Amino acid sequence: MTPHNNSAKIKNFFSDKAINWDKTHKVNDFTTAMNISLIYKNSKNKKVLDVGCGTGIMLPFLLARFGDVYACDISSKMTKIASKKYPLAKVHTIDFEKNSYYRASYFDVIIIYNAFPHFISKTKVLSNANKILKDGGTLIIAHSLGRRELNLLHMRVGGAVVSHILPDNGSLKDILKKCGFVKIKIVEKNNFILTAIKNKSLQKKALNSKAL
User: Fold this and answer.
1) Mean pLDDT value across the chain
2) With contact defined as beta carbons under 8 Å apart, do 189 and 146 qualify?
């Protein structure tokens, strides 16, 4: 199956579940979302993007702390619900794996919550995130479940998400480093939270090479 067909399959999978999606949320989904929103300090005048926002579980926590809140999802049915619930957030329907959509070096923080395994090309997603993050900006990849429990859940659900696993820490770090991220930290207890910083030096090297 081609990446395009995979994207369509994933889009349809989540679109079919959009109307009842909020009913599936557990207490730990909200607790983790709140904790994620507190990671970045001095956020009042900062721009944040929630990638794979679904129906907007992260948005009330982000709107309470950040000055400018954006969100995107591949499913228009998901984004329609998110926009209706949280009209102050700027919500867009895009396939972030194909196109970063937003301006380069625009966001202070990018969050991918309960969504990362559903991207086929994780390298493309992380490259797009790096492109639109400001130098020194923060990337957060998080899940309300630990890796083992998350991977088992997707296997049980089956269908379009049966093979959607969260890679091991070594693989994640390798991909992130190749995509221009440093200071990678991973904490896994009853959930999973990864933080990484966009490497300023790579941006400087790119600018210097253009100048030569």
Assistant:
1) 87
2) yes
